[in-house]
Amino acid sequence: ELALDSLETQTQYYSCICWNGDNILVGSSSGHILPFSGNEPGERIKAHQTAVTNLLTAKDGILSSSNDNIKVFNTSMRCMLSISTHDVGIKHSITSIDIDWVNGVILVGTSGNEIRQLSSDDGSNLKVLVSSHAQSPMGLSVSSNGSFATTGDDGILRIWNAYDHQVSLSYDLN
Description:
This protein is mainly beta. It has no helices and 17 strands. The strands form 4 sheets. Strands 1, 2, 3, 4 and 5 form a 5-stranded antiparallel sheet that branches. Strand 2 and strand 3 (32-37) form a beta hairpin.
């Protein structure tokens, strides 16, 4: 066990975590990603200007986000793509990210109850896939077949069809 605060001179908050092979990556409120190999911390990576809110291991690297920025890193943690939400017309904070390998796109859940589809090549805004759920932070997960699931403060789990982006299953979690 390693106290993450022992690495800081200021109190940090840790909001997300993911596996990168056998290593762990932790996102912090300072915008850093802290890599761990076993129980040894590696060199901090300044990934964002504000808190890291999402970390995701992807096929060839890592996706991370703050409230208004998404970055794609290779496996060596070199930034390959940086996407400003303002530049692609996203007006709400990012609440979740995932990647759709079937269609080669990044999906972004927002606090404005939207799922946006961005190009994984250049970050361009392709389209709004869905606008559903009450206006709330939206959870998002993509399956290996390209279908995706969403949740929000409305208490509804929705499974979306990969091809026409229509709800194929809806479940009231309450």
